[in-house]
Amino acid sequence: MPMEVKICFLGSTAMNKKQRFDIWIIVSIVGLALYILFLFYPLFGILKESIINGTSRDLTTEYFKKFFSKAYYTNSLLNSLKVTSSVTLITTIVGTSLAFVMQTVKIRGRNILDIIIIVSMMSPPFIGAYSWILLLGRNGSITRFINGFTGIQYNGIYGFPGILLVASLSMMPVIYVYVSGAFRNMDISLFEASEGFGCIGIGRFLKIVIPLALPTIISSALLVFMRSLADFGTPMLIGEGYRTMPVLIFNDFMAELGGEKGFAAAMSIILMGVTLIIFLIQKYYTDKNSFTMNAYHPLEPVQSHGIRQVLAYMFCYFVVGIMILPRLVVVYTAFKNTSPSGSLFVPGFSFASFLRVFSKMGDSIRNTLVFASVAVIIIVVVGLLISYVVVRRPNRLNTALDAFSMIPFIIPGSVIGIAISISFRKPFVLTGTAGALILVYVIRRLPYMIRSISAMLRSISLSTEEAGISLGASHLKVFSQITVPILAPGIMSGSIMTWMQTTSELSASIMLYVANTRTLSISIYTEVIRGQYGNAAALATIFMIISVICLVLFFKITGKHEFNV
Amino acid sequence: MSVSVTCDRVVKKYGDAIIIPDLSLNIHNGEFFTLLGPSGCGKTTLLRMMIGFNSIEGGAIKFDNRIINDMPVSKRNVGMVFQNYAIFPHMSTFNNVAFGLKNRKIPKAKIEKRVDEILKIVHIQDLRDRMPDRMSGGQQQRIALARAIVIEPDLLLMDEPLSNLDAKLRIETRDAIKNIQSNIGITTVYVTHDQEEALAVSDRIAVMKDGVIQQVGTPKDIYNRPANRFVATFIGRSNIIEAKLITKNLKRSILFQDGFIASLDTWNDEALSLPDESSILISIRPEEFIIRDTNDGFGGIVRSKTFLGPNTYYNIETSYEQVLEIIQTSDELHELKKDDPVNIDFAHHKINVFNADGSKNLLLGVDSNE
Question: How close A470 gets to chain B, by Cα (Å)?
C-alpha cells in the first residue's frame, strides 16, 4: 500500500507546529550559512577575479578572449578532453570486464587481488606517475633494457601515452568497485531466465548484463571523467610538454612573475563549465533510465574450466599485476641507497631514505595525520547533521541544502584551491594556515559523507524513531540514542574511507600549503619535482603502509570485502 | 489507567488534499477497536493523529475528556506497535523493552522487574539478552508489543501489526494479541485491511472508505447487517443482484428479475416509504443460498465448481448478468455436476437489501454509528 505509506511519511514532517521551531531549524540555518561562507563566497570570488582586470580593476572579458584566441590555450583544453575521454573509455571497458570476470569466475587469490585494486585506488595517482617514470621513463629500467636489447632509441613514456597509462591504472579501480557492486545486486535468476531463452555467453553479456549495469557504469564513468579531468599530479609529472588545463591553471596561478591570477580564474571557470556540462548530460541520462535491483540470490563466482579459466586468470592477474607493479617499484627503491645529493640510486640497500625523511620531513607525516583526522571529525559531524535535516525534515531550505551539498562534486580540486586562496586572505586569514588545508579537505569530501549517511538514514525506517518518541524520548534523545548508534558502524567505516582519501588530496592543497603545513602527498610531489627520488619513494611507502592499515581496519569493521567509494 | 477515545468532527488535510473530511467516533474504555478499510482509506492517518505523529486540522480528539490535539507525543502516554515492528536494532530485547521505562526515570530495580514480567506475558523471556537482528518476525513482533505495553499506556495503538508475518504465524500472533489485550484490559485501536483478522480480534469494528466511516459495530453486526453495499462486499463476499420493491398481499416484497417473489418482515421505515417498483439491490452471501429440489427460488445452471475440503464453491449461471457464487458444505451424496440445472433459494432472514445506489440498508438491525 505505497499510497498510504507516502502520506504518512509526509505527515510526520508536518508534526505539531510547536516542534517546527526546534534545534533542527538552527542546524539548517547554520548549514546554509556555512555553504554561503565556504562555498559560494569563494566561488563568487573566483568568478569576480575572472572578469575584473588585475591592475585597473575594471570589468573585462579580456581573460576569456585571451584563452579562446590562442591555440596554445585552446589546445590545452582539447588535450585535457582528449586524454580524459581516452582514460574514461579505457577504464570503463577494462574495469567493467575485470569486475564481470571476478564476479562470475572463481579466481584463486581473489581477496588479495581485491585488496591490491583498492590500495591502488587509495594512493594518489601521481605516485603511479613517478614510479612509471622509474620504469619507462627516459632513464627507466625497462627503457634501458629495451634500448640496450633492441638498439632502438625509445625516449620513455612521456606525454599523452604516459598520462593515459598512469591515469587509466589509477582510475580503473573506481569503475571496478562500483560496477562490481552492481553485479552483486544482480539476481542469478536473471541469468537463468536469459539462458532459458537461449541467450548465453557473449550475447547474454551484451544484452542482459551490460544493460542492467549501465546506470552504474555511466555514473562511475562520470566520476572517472571528473577526477581525470581535474587530475593535476599525473600530467604535471609525466606529461612533460603535453599541457592539460589543471597544469596550465596551476602554473599561471603559482607563477611568481608573469602569471595572472585573473587568467587562472578564467580558466578555472572554463574547466568548471566543462564538468558542469558533462555532469548535466549524465544526470539527464540517469534520471531517464534509473531502476533498482535487489538480489535474493546474488550472482556468485563459479568454477570454470579449460581455456575459459586460463583466459580469466591471465586477464585478472595481468591487469592487477600492472596495477601493483609501480607500487612494488616504489617500495623497492625506498630501500635502495642513494647518492649523497639524493637524486640517483646507487647499489646497496638500507633504511637511509627512511631515516632521512623521518628527520627532515617528519612534520609532513604528522601534519597528514592531524589534518586528515580533524577534517574527518568535522566532516562526520557536519555530514551527520546535514544528512539528518535533508532526509528527515524535507522542506525548501533543506532541499536547497541537499542541492548545495552536491556542488563540490563537480568542482575540480585545483579550482577549489584557487577559490579558497583568493577568498580568505582578508579579513579571514586562512590562506597559509592549516585551516585552509582542512577546509579544502572538508569541502571536497563532505558530499561523499552526506551521500552515504543519507542513504543509510533512508534505510532506517522512520517508525524506528517514532517508536522512540512514543516511548517518551525527546527528539534530541532519539537522535543521540537511536539514530546515531544505528548509523555508527556505517559512519565508522565511512570515516576511514574519507580519512584515506583525504590524505591523498593534492590538487587543491598544493595551492594552499606553506612550509610548515606540508602534508605527505605534498612532500611526495615536491620531492619528485626536486628529483629526490629516494625521499619520494620512502614517503610513498609510508603512505602505502598507512593506506593498508586503514584498509585492514575497514575490513575488520565492516566484516566484508566490499565497499563503495 | 485506560481511557476512552472520542473523535469529534476530526479533519485531516495535507495542503489542499482532504484525507479525512469529517469523522466522529467513540471508542470505549478497555475496548479492542479496529479501524478496517482498503489501502488509502485514512485508517493509519487517523491512528497517527491519535498518537500525535500527524497534526489535526479540525475538530478534536479527546482521551476521556481531555482534548489532546496539541499535546506533544511524549505527554499522551500512548503505546504504539508499528507495522515493521520498529525494533531498535542496536539494543537487546531487554533494552528495547526497557527504553520507555528509562525515559520515565524509573529506578533500575523496578525496571528490571517490570520488563521481566512483560517478557513473560508475551512469552519471550528466553530472548531477554539477545540482539534482535536474527530473530523471526513473530519474535520481533512480541518485543514490539512488550515495549509498547510495559509503559502502561492509557491507549495502545497497533498499525497492521501482523501484515509482515506468514499465514500460520499471523493466526498464532493474532490470538496472542487478543489474549494479552483482554488480560490487561487496555483500550486498543487496531488498524488492518484484513477483514478476517478484524473479525477475529475486535470487540467493535469501524469500516472506513475514503476517510469516511461506513459503519461501526460488532463483528457479527457488521457481517450480518452491513450498512451499505461497500461494507457488504468488503467484509466477506456478497452476490449483489438487482430487483424491484413491490407490495404483495399488503406486505413489502422483493420481485426478482425472473418473477420469483420473496416476502420479508424486517423492513425499516425508509423501505416502507419507498414507492412500489423502486429499484433495489439484494446482497446474498454465498453461504446463504439453499439449493432446492422444488421449484422455489430461481433457476440456474452449474457452470463450474471448486472443491475446497469442507466446502465446495459453485458458479451458477442464471438469468442475471453476473454469475452467482454459492458455497455448499461438501457432501458426496448431493454433489452437483457441471451443467446440472438447479433451483436456488436463500435463507430469507439472512439476506440484505440496499437502496438503488447501494448507500443504505433497507432492513432493521443496522446500527450505523454506535
Answer: 6
